[in-house]
Amino acid sequence: MNHHDRGLKTKAHLIAKSLLPENQETPIHFLEEKITPRSLTFRRNHFPYPKFPIQPFFLTITGSVKNPLIFHYSQITSMPSQTITALLECSGNKRAHFEPKVFGDQWKEGALSQGNWKGVPLSYLLSLTEVNTGAREIVFLGDDSGVKDGQHVHFQRSLPLEKALDQHVIVAWEHNQKPLSPKHGFPFRLIVPGWYGMASVKWLKTIHVINHSFSGPFQTDDYVYYPHKSEDKDSFPVTTNRVNSIIQHPLDRQILKPGKHEITGLAWTGEGVITSVEISVDNGVTWKAASLHNPTQKYQWVKWSISHVFEKNHESTVKVRAFDSTGQSQPDQAFWNRKGYGHNQVSQIKVQIEN
């Protein structure tokens, strides 16, 4: 990275999408490193930030368990831990690109960040409480709350027991080698790699084991794919990240000098790993394989690039599509849904070449 690029990076800042509650996206075009700095990690909130009491912090596990337990902050942080490098992507990422338009925060590409998360495996905590045989789901209650549909509610989400016991699901207390910041979930945050960010509940207070399906509003109303504009049939829950990509350079509508330019970006997926990325500079008529730069690792984005010589006095539509090891690829057209989740159609920009 040259001196000029470093200057760009230091000037980057979050891009506001709403202020109350605070929702800000990452300036994704300027991120060259594997880990997103804490100051540039996107912020997604449903309610105002919790007000923290001046007292010790606890995590409670209750419900369908043999041994309900309350853990003090210092107990959690002294347990066997693991560190996971994982991206988090809001399920509303790229919502601004849906046609027809949908309501909600109009995220572009930046509801996406990648971090190092250190915590205790959820499966370890559940082993201490001994989950009952009939248990089906684990409910996670955050300390953030507010009014939704006329009711005062906390943000709550559940995971099926099988997913909750995945070795990579952790209760994190550190983000990028420091205690979680108050804006990203202090004191505890669930991290569910491979699932959209709504599953990674912030300000985690209570873990509740249940023998039935959870039906809170952020489970059965929000974070559901509704394929029809005015009816709820054929709906299904938002879970795993869809295979996706972005172009970081050049920027959309940029004017370039004729000659060789590097086209660069990121690609990622929920399950499996990225296996290939293809680029078209002629609006999808022909495609070429891009180079993948870092080893493709589960739950992490991969950087890709390709060089192309642009001819003068020409407009070019550049497209990118990613493929993963589960057989998924980006569709030519996004799966439209009423709340605007999971947008992952083939990414594109237009550039103009000077005379």
Automatic annotation (TrEMBL):
One of its GO terms (biological process) is sulfur compound metabolic process. It comes from the Bacteria. Pfam families: Mo-co_dimer, Oxidored_molyb. GO terms for molecular function: heme binding; molybdenum ion binding; molybdopterin cofactor binding; sulfite oxidase activity. SUPFAM superfamilies: E set domains, Oxidoreductase molybdopterin-binding domain. InterPro entries: Ig_E-set, MoCF_OxRdtse_dimer, Mopterin_OxRdtase_euk, OxRdtase_Mopterin-bd_dom, OxRdtase_Mopterin-bd_sf. CDD domains: SO_family_Moco_dimer. Residues 242-353 form the Moybdenum cofactor oxidoreductase dimerisation domain. This is Sulfite oxidase.
